[in-house]
Specification:
The protein is of the alpha/beta class and 571 residues long. The protein has two domains: 59-311, Alpha-Beta Barrel (TIM Barrel), CATH 3.20.20.140; 361-570, no CATH class. 25% of the residues lie in helices and 30% in strands. It is built from 15 helices and 29 strands. Strands 17, 18, 19, 20, 21, 22, 23, 24, 25 and 29 form a ten-stranded mixed sheet that branches. Strands 1, 2, 3, 4, 5, 14, 15 and 16 form an eight-stranded mixed sheet that branches. It has a five-stranded parallel sheet with strand order 6-7-8-9-10. A hairpin with a 2-residue loop joins strand 26 (550-553) and strand 27 (556-559). Helix 3 runs parallel beside helix 5. The longest helix is centred in the first third of the chain and has 18 residues, at 95-112.
Length: 571
């Protein structure tokens, strides 16, 4: 009698090639599928037997475009969390960590993933900084040489999303352009992820011509059509689960050219809703056939990343699988990785973190002495009133608008109180220059109180905004004590906080603790008047100088469309 390590009996097995379920027994040998026995008449001597009891068996879910740092968790607890959702492989692009610690940050993320229960692969950060040194100060820089170095890492499988999509299709001297030229000559066919909202026609062709053939951003139906018709792999995240888009894919049988991804999922959403399983579930509920949804969450993403050893239940493939009671309901009863159980609904538990980052990763908030005098905007033009540029926050998007508001001047300091605006500041915290960028925000932001964060895209300098300079100073000092985090303050009291001590952007807590801390901050922001569908994301992108129209960095106000610093006071 032949020996196997695991025998799964009485399962309804998803056959990827036929795209339907077939009753079978499945054997596993040395971590890989051995035989899918449709006749169910082969005897094996098995080290372990699992009676599936008629459950549906699908390949482990594969998420090929996401960012672990968006969860504010380190790789190990993140992997433990998503394993419970049936995800057995992810491809993460760590540009947030790279913005703080450069190549070292990426390498540490790779090392920190080694003991995770799932396979964690990485993409090479291609836009660090997101713009340039004139517009923002980052802790790290990923240039062409660094990209070449990372290309040789075993767990690196692609180039991460190229975000400066309008610059790269024009004549330029970008580091990523140099790297793409190198890949074209030395590694043709290497997987390159894109980020190109709104590109159409010739501009889209220019983008594709560079070898960038994947996109995950939000689009109109016409943009989706042009991407698929021109050979781009279309990655569908939550906000792209639009009925007209899914209908177009289904009517034209375009399943080979798309896959489901998560991109950014914060800890509270992970804890309350799930991860890739949530996107797949929502697609099915929107009308995407369940079998095709499974196909586009397992097989097509694996092929996209050249991970040919997974994404299918067939002889010789990795024994990564999920057992479900209902194929249209993505709630796993069991999850297996390499033939070993990593999750059981009957026995849920969180594994403690074992990885320790280098000590300087826990001391990344490096500020010069900050005093109350720093929390004032000088106006030395001798006028009694000035007009200032103000960032207007909108309730339903992360893009902002520029608004011009007149404010009085007293003793050469702008008297902004009573203007309907909050003072906003970005303090360079990587220990490079001690810059402070000043601005004002209005609109769907806080009505009162103070917020401070080092989780501030993508440079992750220290952002603080509020209606009381003393509270703002208190918040900055508290962030220094925590060595990074997200918090709200009023009356010199912390209302809610989430400590992020790893590089100022990550927690080593499990998903529950991180989620509860983040939810408390989110709720506090709403209590203080922040009116946005995702106030944490809205606030965290007020410093992202690639997202229109007016943003704030340590260098000052950035006019995103012109890609230049503009003065706060309009002459």
């Amino acid at each position: 009698m032949e020996s196997v390590s695991l025998l799964i009996r009485n399962a309804k097995v998803f056959n990827t090639y036929l795209k339907r379920f077939i009753p079978a027994d499945v054997s596993v040998k040395d971590g890989r599928f051995y035989y899918i026995d449709r006749k169910r008449d082969t005897d094996f001597q098995a080290e372990a037997v699992l009676d599936a009891d008629g459950k549906y068996m699908i390949p482990g879910l594969v998420d090929i475009h996401m960012h672990i740092e968006s969860s504010m968790m380190t790789p190990e607890p993140f992997g433990d969390c998503v394993a419970a959702y049936g995800v057995t492989t992810i491809v993460s692009e760590p540009h947030e960590m790279a913005n703080v610690k450069g190549t070292r940050g990426v390498l540490e993320m790779i090392s920190a993933a080694k003991d995770a229960p799932i396979d964690i692969f990485y993409g090479i950060p291609s836009s660090v900084p997101s713009t340039n040194e004139k517009l923002e100060t980052t802790g790290g820089i990923i240039d062409c040489g660094a990209m070449k170095h990372l290309l040789n890492e075993e767990d690196v499988v692609c180039v991460g999303e190229i975000m400066n999509y309008r610059q790269i299709i024009r004549e330029n001297d970008l580091e990523i352009t140099k790297f793409l030229d190198y890949l074209c000559k030395e590694h043709p066919g290497y997987v390159i992820e894109g980020h190109c909202p709104s590109l159409l026609d010739l501009d889209l062709a220019r983008f594709l011509y560079l070898g960038i053939d994947g996109d995950h951003t939000e689009h109109t139906l016409e943009e989706v059509k042009q991407r698929i018709e021109n050979g781009m792999f279309f990655e569908i995240q939550d906000k792209m689960l639009k009925p007209e888009v899914l209908e177009y894919i289904c009517q034209n049988q375009l399943y080979e050219y798309c896959g489901f991804v998560t991109d950014d999922t914060m800890a509270d959403v992970l804890y309350e809703k799930g991860q890739l399983n949530y996107v797949v579930q929502k697609a099915i509920e929107t009308g995407f056939p369940a079998e095709m949804a499974i196909y586009c969450a397992t097989y097509t993403p694996s092929r996209r990343m050249h991970l040919y050893d997974r994404g299918v239940i067939a002889p010789g493939k990795l024994a990564d699988f999920v057992l479900l009671d209902d194929p249209a309901v993505m709630e796993p009863s069991y999850v297996y990785k390499n033939g070993v159980q990593i999750f059981s609904q009957k026995n849920r538990r969180e594994v403690p973190v074992s990885y320790r980052f280098p000590e300087d990763f826990y001391r990344s908030v490096c500020l010069p002495p900050v005093t109350l005098a720093d929390f004032g905007v000088r106006a030395d033009n001798g006028r009694d009133e000035v007009t200032v540029r103000v960032i207007e926050v909108h309730p339903d998007r992360t893009q902002t608008e520029e608004k011009l508001i007149a404010m009085p001047v007293r003793d050469h300091i702008v008297d902004w109180k009573g203007s309907g605006c909050l003072l906003a500041m970005v303090l360079e915290r990587h220990g490079k220059n001690g810059n402070i960028g000043y601005g004002f925000i209005t609109g769907s932001c806080l009505n009162t109180g103070t917020v401070a964060a080092t989780y501030f895209h993508d440079h992750h300098n220290l952002f603080v905004a509020g209606d009381d300079p003393e509270d703002m100073l208190f918040a900055v000092r508290r962030i220094q004590e925590l060595q990074g985090g997200f918090l709200t303050v009023k009356g010199k009291k912390v209302l809610a906080e989430l400590a992020l001590p790893v590089c100022g952007i990550l927690s080593e807590q499990g998903v529950r603790e991180t989620a509860l801390g983040l939810r408390a901050v989110r709720d506090s922001l709403k209590d203080l008047g922040y009116r946005h569908s995702n106030p944490v994301m809205s606030l965290g992108t007020l410093g992202l100088p690639v997202s229109p129209a007016l943003k704030l960095t340590d260098k000052g106000l950035v006019d995103v469309k012109r890609s230049e610093i503009v003065p706060l006071i309009v002459e």
